[in-house]
Predict the structure.
Amino acid sequence: MFGLDRQVARALELGKELDAAKLSRRELAKLGLVAGSAHWAKGASLRAALAQTVPAIPLTPWRDELPIPPRLGAGGYSYNPADHQWCDRYPAQSAQCYELRIREHGHSFHKDLPQSTVWSFNGTFGGPVLDVRYGQPFCLYIENDLPADHVGYGNPETTSHLHNFHTATESDGGPWNWLKPGEHRIQHYTMCRAGFSDPQGAGNPYYRDTTGLAPGGTWWAQDGGDGDLRETLTTLFIHDHRPEFTAPNLYKGLFMMVRAFDQQDTGDESTGWKLPSGDYDVPLLFQDKRIVPDTGEMTYNQFAVDGFLGNYLTVNGKIRPYLEVEPRAYRFRLLNGGPSRFYRFVLRAGGRNVTFAQITESGNLLYVPRRNLQEIDLWVAERSDIIVDFSGMADRTEIIMSNTLKMRDDGRGEDVGKRLNPDDPANQILKLVVKSKGRNYPRFSLPNYFRPLPPLPDLSKVRRRLFKFERKNGMWAINGRFWDPDLDHANAASHIDPPHVVARDSAEIWTLDSSSGGWDHPMHIHFEEGQIIARNGVSIPAASRHRYDIYRLRQSRLDVLLRFRDFPQTDFRSTGAVPHTRDDHGRYVMHCHNVVHEDHAMMVTWTIRA
Amino acid sequence: MQRRMFFATGAAALAGAATGGADRVWGASAPAASTHSIIPNVRVLDQDGREHRFYDGLVKDRVVLINFFYTSCGETCPLVTENLRAVQDLLGERAGRDIFMYSVTLQPELETPAILADYAALWDIRPGWKFLTGAPDEIERLRRAIGFASADPTYDRIKDNHTGIVRYGNDRLDRWAGTAGLGRPAWIAKAVTALAEA
């Protein structure tokens, strides 16, 4: 081989020759060598070709009952605390070691359809629901039981990420160290809030309550406690993160909900904020599917680059199911399981919208809940908990949850300005039917406030960092570079000098800049929630701020304040079996959660250093 | 004059290929249906002027890397080709034995096998890597089917917007993904090798 310079020079020379030889369309047409305009005459079918359109056949509506994900019971796995950061101080009791087995199995999306082959955690499409509690560290034993000889889309190598917990690198389930079929590993979660290693409680003004809302005192953190209450996470989910295959693996079904409870959001209606609990706290996991009606098999286009849309909307793995509800308040936890579709949910009854309240956004409790909403948007990977109060509604009242958000046909984002008809069967997702069990139903009273946001540091002193997202030659580049799935992982040199190093315990403002028109990007930053402090250069007032883990980018420039606390553990020395190098304990990613974009390099690695 | 000469050579090469036999006249008959649901069985010509069915002849039961390029592409293609040349070295003996590489032109109306052969020679391409051209409408169909296209006509029209992806897959498993053509060669080689061994 000769040198790169010479090759480039030769290529450029050849290019110039060809440019010089440019032929007129007429000359080419004479020779019949150009299809020319014929390509573009066929343009109308391009969208269909890219989307691999299969028309949805009508299925009997409201035939299946909505399945509720079963609660995951604890197993009894032992683990080596020396493998995990902070395990010395926050060990998981064996009663909090849960088993996840990733399996292939048959699943019925609708009684009219034959069974589909899906992947899931523990053999139920959309998995079980895992309930965890602050102050009770836990472990996940994750085993990959997928068939090694799998044929078709999806890669039976998998890694499981708890989105968006405050997790040590080795347990983050990020896009490295995936499990091959037959392999397993244990991930550990401290169940502490961000800030747990800070000097806490009385004496640290950062934690002083200025709202009068702090529970049992004037501090948002207690000495020796489990972090800043204002950093509590509420509705989370676990999903596959195998690089370059996340979209098909997620689509196969590798996602499940996690509910984190705490001393006020207790999971018990008689305590704390008394939010609807138990049977009245209902996970709703949304994914859209393409299904071949004759065989029941799901299809996926492995060659899609912009996005992938299904033509059947499913909730908890069913197409247009029904759920009987009692005339009382419910908490519905909405989770958009992707891969590319966004939703705008409405509740319809008798041709009108039913109002509801929103208590969480991006999985985190709002400071002030939003009342009397008629619709709510959910981008990919977002979670929003809503309260719907059926009190006083007559038996057999029917309320239908529908989607009115129209996506662009290639799945790259919303077709802004268009609206789907919520009463068209194609856009209907779930029917709720009121049925009283004759109980004396309590009136539900929505709290006026949950927890305030943590205060901002002095912004003039924080470091700023720019991440510019650009489409480059059909792939996604961040600051002009492509994500390298292998970097920081196998390459020892990159441990010494990784890209984007942030200092532990520092705060930074990250500017997320996506200027390409027509593209929507639900951008996700692992490890830490951030507050958007400015949009397109305009400050966001404190009352409109929130803690997010998904940042909606639509030709926009968001300034996000992030803090990097607790990890890596400074005195951690791995002595366990898991091989860690000393400098590889603070590695995370940011990526687009339109997972088709993520699979095409829209991801960047960043590292926290003590 | 240079233009004319170039044109004459190019056209002659294409014409030569096209008159090899009645069944080889471009557009004379529809390509045989592909047995793959997405990857079409279009007819392509390699840099040596040999004709292949894209799916049946080049992809079926193989582990492959596919990218699109054009010889006059100024910035990206030479770097991608150079990068993939490094990948070919990393693949060692597997290149051409059980892992195959295909670079398809985005300018089939201009780029004849002879031009592609010249381009391949620039990079000292080893066996197992074919540079492909064909009838423009068939290459266009291939490009769209396997995800080197955009539904946005303005974006799609710019050839350079399709030069950065490398598709890799194992047809026996029908497992496909994309990676950056300018990614680190070690990753590209590792990704495709992992599929070959899956």
Remarks:
- Chain A touches chain B through 74 residues (CB under 8 Å).
- Chain A has a mean pLDDT of 88.
